[in-house]
Amino acid sequence: MVPSRSPVEWPGLGGADERRFGLLIIGDVGIEVRASLPDVRFTELDSDRLSYAPARAMVAGTAVNLARCATRYFRRVGVLGKVGDDDFTPVIRGELRRIGVEDHLRVEAGGANGVAVMLRDRPCGGGPGARLLVVRDDPPGRRLAEPEVRAASAGIAGADVLATDGYALLSPVSRAALHAAARTARDAGTRVAFDLVPHDIDARLPAGAVLPMLALADLVVSEAPTLARLLGRPAPFSGRQVRGLLPELDRAVPGRPLWLLRFGATSLERVLAYRRDELLLEYPTGYGEGVERAGFGDRLTVCELYWWLSGS
């Protein structure tokens, strides 16, 4: 069962009064450079340009971003991922120690760490501006292998929930590792949560490469349009249209995972919580004009995970 109040009402997006549960996260770990262009739109650029604007470099990646938020809710947080072996590696490990996250990293000898560049242009019409995300095309996380996951089986078994995401599905090697991690978790009684990203995964992989992972999950977080496109259905935007997608989920995915389906103008404003034959809850996330989008999805996800575990 899930609590009757929405996660935004309790425990809330600011953190939990009592940190509980153990969370192990499998995902990308690397270095990210973030910058914004307050004075120009991408469509206005027709020549080289120098802009002085807010910019910073940080340890990031799907696993680290989620872990940072999770430390405000969970008693114990760990990250399992594959990193390179260069000057950034001690920086990455030092940042995990600084934020109080257990290091289950696997190191690729002689390999370079993954690097991403996120650039956002000038807001237009009250929106946040367009985001351009450039990611190294062959990060070490795509080579996280099944034996490396099995070597971390004690950490998986010791967690209350294993949180995973769809970037690992993009490589056959890390896809097999992700499936092995999920099966290890299920055998140990650890719940499995899966975040269906990237949001254009339907354009990158066939449904047959994604649906088996959904079948291994106890909870799936997804933007409703992503899931609809993956199933070959029109992208829904309203609550009524999202409800129309539910029978398709039941036909495509066996079992009774808890679906947290995000929808709205930017697919982040509202969530429909559903389990087979049981519409549980619809709630607003609190996202809207004036709310910083960067990191909001991670804050919402860890809040929902804590809320979900607390309802058992």
Automatic annotation (TrEMBL):
Pfam families: PfkB. One of its GO terms (molecular function) is kinase activity. Transmembrane segments: none annotated. Keywords: Kinase, Transferase. It comes from the Bacteria. Coiled coil: none annotated. Residues 59-234 form the Carbohydrate kinase PfkB domain. InterPro entries: PfkB_dom, Ribokinase-like. This is PfkB family carbohydrate kinase. It comes from Actinomadura hallensis.
